[in-house]
Design a protein that fits this description.
alpha+beta; four-stranded mixed beta sheet; 4 helices; 10 strands; globular
């Protein structure tokens, strides 16, 4: 089964080319123009075992909002495309991931019904050129575009650790939920579709 996608998005604010292999090795090549965001996307790929390429030319002279949001939208669309009818996937997963004093919790249902809940706050306004609250917005935008029911909690004392724990928890949870269950040949829903 080929669970890959290639997506392009071009607007007045960003131009993005992205490829995703859900069943990859964790290889990433990322260039968004925001160093910390690149690091988070590389961490997401590594810990989710997703092969990911992202090239984004965004309006960073304004701020980081459009770049982070649009990459999340394109990544979410790529997940939706790569998973197709979601036949055989685990569907549900949850993870708690620590990073030093910080911890993030992510619970996901690959339901096709987008919903996002967030609890917590980031300890500092920025990490490098990355606005900390954009981590929350990234997760929300990803959930809306990929059709995920996604619940996220973050706690800690250092925004770098809090954001990184969130991206790692999101990666591990999505890896778990999108894995194929060899016992299942159908879509994991009593409705017959997701």
């Amino acid at each position: 089964m080929d669970r890959t996608a290639a997506r392009r998005r071009e607007t007045a604010e960003t131009t993005i080319d992205l490829t995703l292999d859900v069943d990859g090795q964790g290889d990433a090549r990322v260039d968004t123009g925001i160093g910390f965001f690149d690091h988070m996307l590389e961490s997401f790929a590594k810990h989710g075992l997703f092969d990911l390429t992202v090239d984004c030319d965004g309006d960073l002279e304004i701020d980081d909002h459009h770049t982070v949001e649009d990459v999340a939208l394109v990544l979410g669309a790529a997940f939706a495309e790569a998973l197709g009818d979601k036949r055989g996937i685990q569907r549900f997963a949850d993870r708690r991931i620590p990073l030093d004093e910080a911890v993030a919790s992510v619970v996901v249902d690959v339901s096709g019904r987008p919903l996002f809940r967030f609890d917590g706050a980031f300890s500092e306004e920025r990490v490098g050129e990355f606005t900390s609250v954009m981590a929350r917005h990234f997760a929300r935008s990803l959930a809306m575009q990929a059709g995920l029911t996604l619940h996220v909690e973050v706690a800690g004392e250092n925004a770098h650790h809090e954001v990184e724990a969130l991206f790692k928890a999101l990666a591990r949870t999505l890896d778990d939920a999108t894995r194929i269950d060899d016992r299942r040949s159908d879509t994991p829903s009593t409705k017959g579709e997701l």
